[in-house]
């Protein structure tokens, strides 16, 4: 069983960027804590951060055992051979813009939790809409970086995984 934690654009700057909104914890701290948390539950957790939409799409496909060159292998058996049971994703600003990430998550059919450090509903109106939320198993926002802990806990303990 494996969980993949994905962070999108600018989240490499957590701890430095707008600390009044995002707090002072860094991404390496978050990733380390998430790995330890998962491992205490007997689960492996992989992490990935990119500022690039296409790189995130590639990583999501890879989580299903599909690479960017996977055109030939598209049977249901491939989905069963998926490498990751659940995804926890903070897509950053791509939340509000990316149909490609939505399609990638729908395409691989891996259940995911959407995380936002800030309360996106209490900010600019353009942050209220997410291209992912209606496909997510759960959405966490406004809990600060604790949202990652909550999401990993939920993913590890409560999300149905294919290889169980
Ligand atoms: C964010 C919220 C987004 O609106 C913003 O673009 C981010 C971070 C959050 O974690 O609160 O980059 O996803």
Automatic annotation (TrEMBL):
User: What pathway annotation does it carry?
Assistant: Aromatic compound metabolism; 3,4-dihydroxybenzoate biosynthesis; 3,4-dihydroxybenzoate from 3-dehydroquinate: step 1/2
Give the site residues for Transition state stabilizer.
17
Going by the entry's taxonomy, the superkingdom of the source organism is recorded as Eukaryota
Coiled-coil spans are none
Q: Which residues form the active site?
A: 22, 116
Q: Which Gene Ontology biological process is one annotated for this entry? A: quinate catabolic process
Mention one GO molecular function: 3-dehydroquinate dehydratase activity
Q: Which reaction does it catalyse?
A: 3-dehydroquinate = 3-dehydroshikimate + H2O
Residues bound to substrate = 90, 96, 103, 117-118, 127
Q: Any idea of its EC number?
A: 4.2.1.10
Provide the alphabetized UniProt keywords.
Lyase, Quinate metabolism
Task: State what this protein does.
Answer: Is involved in the catabolism of quinate. Allows the utilization of quinate as carbon source via the beta-ketoadipate pathway.
Subunit architecture? Homododecamer. Adopts a ring-like structure, composed of an arrangement of two hexameric rings stacked on top of one another.
Q: Which family does it belong to?
A: Belongs to the type-II 3-dehydroquinase family.
Alphabetical list of HAMAP family matching this protein: AroQ
Name of the protein in question: Catabolic 3-dehydroquinase
Q: Which organism does this sequence originate in?
A: Chaetomidium leptoderma
């Amino acid at each position: 069983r494996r969980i993949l934690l994905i962070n999108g654009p600018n989240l490499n700057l957590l701890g430095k960027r707008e600390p009044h909104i995002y707090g002072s914890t860094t991404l390496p701290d978050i990733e380390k804590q998430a790995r330890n948390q998962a491992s205490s539950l007997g689960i492996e957790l992989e992490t990935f951060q990119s500022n690039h939409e296409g790189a995130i799409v590639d990583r999501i496909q890879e989580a299903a055992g599909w690479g960017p060159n996977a055109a030939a292998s598209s049977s249901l058996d491939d989905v069963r051979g998926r490498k990751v049971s659940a995804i926890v994703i903070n897509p950053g600003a791509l939340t509000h813009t990316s149909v490609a990430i939505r399609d990638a998550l729908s395409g691989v059919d891996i259940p995911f939790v959407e995380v936002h450090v800030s309360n996106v509903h209490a900010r600019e109106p353009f942050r209220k809409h997410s291209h992912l939320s209606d496909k997510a198993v759960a959405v966490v926002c406004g809990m600060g970086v604790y949202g990652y802990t909550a999401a990993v806990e939920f993913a590890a303990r409560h999300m149905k995984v294919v290889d169980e």
